[in-house]
């Protein structure tokens, strides 16, 4: 081809490739690539990151060779242009998980089996993150390492991170996979320092094959915790162990974090989870309805998908509230019921339902005095009541996490984050518990 045009060459290649791979792979990977220029027999293309091209090249290089040679000649070559040329290149060799690590492989992964990849509904808002997660589960430690998943509350960061861990555990049964919330890591670090066992703490984490740390932003302003995590991060990365991190903000927005730690977060792939579009929201609802065996029609699904667009957690919360109201009120789930309850939710949020109201309802439900609720009691029923109030405070009000913590016994931001995560996990794994929370929420909304 004389004086070939780079766009034309790339489109011609795509027309061939599309018939050779699945539509999912084509949309996920090839849609992220943009032809830039041609120099001689070299076609230059832009890709999102170095980690992206390393995986893409290893998976699709073979099938790209023929079409490129057809349109650019026998010496055709594809050259990748990335935004971070100085990132270290990942080793493409598959990591080996030895059978000689029985103690590591028996570590409780702390993974929630309900957070599996099949239940993580794909949409335009998350397809790159989900596909990267699948790639990691096939070859952990070699592509997208570390993987940093970031985005707003309730968009599925924890679900996806744990789903990747479950996939790795299923493929590599002898791998030591561990999920830990950053607040728990911080608490463990402080306890280790107090007991003069910091080396033991660090050595434990250094023997993990896949480490998943949730809510990494909690490390901000904690230099000691960051230093310990840096040692663990470096050891695992150098030994080609997989690191998966989540954050409520991008690396560039993480404040009071060591620069050397931030620079390492950027070595792999940072991917944002965005708000799901209407079609994805509807598919999420259908999946939840099917799993829970609810009798809810498409008219209700369509209404909820169109009217609740903030995040997935709020969408699921509305579904659970409607279902609980139907069950406890012994009435069918109809469109008019959904309109009534969703309208109440919207009004309550617009009017900023008070945290005091939530606290009173929680205390009444558990037959608990306000003084006991606000105390420093470590009894499980008191702790859980406070956590439920924090969870409902975040979902039903506009109050900040700091405000919620302050009004519920003067707790800090991290405590509220941990409480909300704990309650969300229990709702996903315990149907009886989910019904109790839904009953409290229904009483608040219908008061």
Number of helices in the DSSP assignment: 20
Shape: globular
* Largest sheet properties: 5 strands, parallel
Q: What proportion strand?
A: 5-15%
Q: Strands across the major sheet, in which order?
A: 5-6-7-4-8
> Which oligomerization state do the chains in this entry correspond to?
single chain
Q: Give the CATH level 1 class of the largest domain.
A: Alpha Beta
So, CATH architecture of the largest domain? Answer: 3-Layer(aba) Sandwich
- Which residues sit in consecutive blocks of at least 5 with pLDDT less than 50? 85-105
The third-level CATH topology of the largest domain is Rossmann fold
Radius of gyration: 24 Å
Q: Write the element-wise H/E pattern from the N-terminal end onward.
A: HHEEHEHHEHEHHEHEHEHHHHHHHHHH
- Number of E-state strands: 8
> What's the CATH superfamily of the largest domain, by name?
P-loop containing nucleotide triphosphate hydrolases
What would the average pLDDT be, to the nearest integer? 82
Total domain modules: 3
Helix content: 55-70%
How many angstroms separate the termini?
Answer: 74 Å
Structural class determined from secondary elements: alpha/beta
